[in-house]
Write a structure and sequence with these properties.
- The complex is a heterodimer of chains A (about 120) and B (about 400).
- Chain A contains four helices and no strands.
- By secondary structure, chain A is an all-alpha fold.
- Chain B is an all-alpha fold.
- Chain B has 22 helices and no strands.
- Classes of the chains: A mainly alpha (about 120), B mainly alpha (about 400).
- Chains A and B meet through helix 1 and helix 2 of A and helix 7, helix 8, helix 9, helix 15 and helix 22 of B.
Chain lengths: ~120, ~400
Amino acid sequence: MKQIYLLSTMKALDWNFIISVVFSGMAIVFAILILLVFIMIITGKISQASNKTNNDNNFCVPSSSQTNDISSNNVVAAITAAISVMLSKEGKTPNFIIKSIRKTSKKSSAWADAAKIENTTSFK
Amino acid sequence: MDTFINTINGILKQSGFLSLDYPQIIMIIISLLLMYLAIFKNYEPLLLLPISFGMLLTNLPIAGMYHMELFSGKTLNFAELLRQGGLIDYLYLGVKLGIYPSLIFLGIGAMTDFGPLIANPSSFLLGAAAQLGIFITFIGAMAFGIFNYNEAASIGIIGGADGPTAIYVTKTLAPHLLGPIAVAAYSYMALVPIIQPPIMKLLTTKKERMVVMQQLRPVSKIEKIVFPLLSTILLSLIVPSAAPLIGMFMLGNLMRESGVVDRLTKTAQNELMNIVTIFLGVSVGATATAKYFLAPKTLIIIFLGLFAFSMGTAGGVLFGKLMYVVTKGKVNPLIGSAGVSAVPMAARVSQKVGQEANPSNYLLMHAMGPNVAGVIGSAIAAGVLLSLFAK
């Protein structure tokens, strides 16, 4: 008796609707996630391209006119490395460009020296 | 002496002992059994413990801590809630109004690293394929002939292997089934390491399981910040009913990746998440009253929950096999099973089964991609079901 009831209930169900729910549901989930795939691929390409450009810029050596007081490229490299270490956070170095390096003739004040020491001494 | 006897008699008459019936005793035993599984067998204890205790409290007569009838209508009668509401009635408002699942998603978002998914966007497809369990189970539930569309959709969402999503859908579509569905969802999530491996091994060859995947590319901070923003805008516009879950999930992730609100991130990951978990667990457990839980439907839901998990796993692995063929052997199909969500348990299972076939293989990071894609996929599937059936 119960079997007959179940079968009759099943027949009463709109199976076309049930199947359409399944197909449309899966199709929507796939369509949205495929859209996200394309967006992430494009975002990734843009990000990689911009990183490459920035990295190229990072390693460009200042021209001779910008380095009138600095004769050796090694000094430029050392200063660049020092700035890179100072700016790095959690092992990641932000992109930066050194436009010029000049020797300072003026003797710095005691306050400036104190600030330099505070900013360049590592935490213990 | 008469006064003393009358007092004792009065206390006994007012106590719950005389009102305790057999169904309630059975429910108390079930709640103690679930507590045993949580405490001694470590089955999802963070949720199963408060759920089972809520189940215990709700089945104690006279105490009146939870009244299902206050929440059965389409609108809330706050006057009635204030007049006869118990403690869990007030806590349950967070479930009824969809607050707890969304806050849990905020915490999950704050703990999630989308890096592996962004590095390998094709993982999204595995996260989509594993949602097959939700929709196949919907058919299965309808085939039983005793569930209506709303109930079948709520049962199907167990296949998303995502507790908050299952609760979010069920509280809207079939609140009377919240107890069995939550218990099934969280119990099977704890059993993922037992349910998934046989299906994964059955559907793959040893050669496929041994595939070593290429190392993932590093992902920039900008990409990690852009992803939650773009996803929120896009997904909320396409499936507005999924916006509360997706929105909170992505807010949590943005807080994490921006790196400027560490205090908020830590609160969302820890204190807030823990507080909400207690409230959610107790109030969801309280819906498992004897009247609704001790019914043939509960046994069928428990069976269909297992079916949903199995179908979701199979869907992910089969799509993984397809990707293995298309990429000429570069994708290990085992990472497909992680698409069922259950973060990070399902990804760990992929890693474990992969290492059984090839001890030098490390699939964990590759499996984390489909794993978090599964969370997004199940939230979208939930949005689809809500937009179809929540009237």
